[in-house]
Fold these 2 entries.
Entry 1:
Amino acid sequence: MKTLESHVLRKRACVVRRGAGGKGLLIQYLACGLPDWLIGFIGTKDEAEGIKQRIRMFLHDELKLELSEEKPLITHARTEAARFLGYHLSTMQANTYRPHGKRSVNGKVELRIPADVLTKKSERYLKNGKPIHRTELETETAYSLMSRYQSEYRGLVEYYQMANNLNRLGRLRWIMEQSLTKTLAAKLKVSVPRIYKRYQTTHIVDGRPYKGLHVIVERKGKQPLIAKWGNIPLRRCEFWN
């Protein structure tokens, strides 16, 4: 399960036109990623509390389950962010951004990579704030090392490919590359510049060049094995529409 979309079944639950005393349409959404779920709607906090209580009654009466008192949070999407399946969800508000004379982003759902996720993922490759070699991986082959780093980075990029701040993973990529080259240098007992000289290459992805690394393992009578690093563009996919 690599993307939020593969976790989530999203459906517009209902659109209700309010009466004369209301303020326009009441739009509700339901997102489920068992055991987590999220309801988004345009309405007041009192209405949100009412929905929460009806859910509590339904779980208790129909499913014989109790809704936790602490976990169900009510979040104002424009001023706060809700945590859901590893993402921060909120709505955008940018009055100064007006392509074609319209505030086209206001009210749209924004998905972001939480800062603590980036911090935690970076810790594995850092010591005292600097990229380090990973001693525990020195027994692996150069091919296996590069494949491991590429797999770890690819998994994050693919999971967070809907994030509006996907470019923040560029910093993690740099940290991981420094850690990878230092680990290879420690394993092969050479300098980091020698590692770049030996493995550096240019990857072509969709017609565009990307600087990176590769390890080629020749095999007699078979296609060579190739491990790559650096051929994963940070291109956002907009599935949340």
Entry 2:
Amino acid sequence: MLSASVNVGVDRRDAKRNADCMTQLVTRVAEDLVALVDGLVDDGIVASRSEAVRRGLEILVDRERRRRTGEAIVRGYQALPQTDEEAGWADEATRQMIAEDPW
């Protein structure tokens, strides 16, 4: 059972509106993980178990999106590497900035 702190800062109208437009996922979770999630709720880090699951899924999906984007960038550079001429201007600009800085 969740404590009364679950709904702290949560407008019940928002929860109802969200419930009407969101798909429900049902899953089984180990008791030790549930206890840790309940601790997050008790500490006010998330408003509910559901919010914890949503935030966790958002983080997982974002991390995977970023990983795929990074891999695509690497594949692009591997397929068409920078030339010395393309990379050289950055090196020269860096040298000039350092030389101009009054250490």
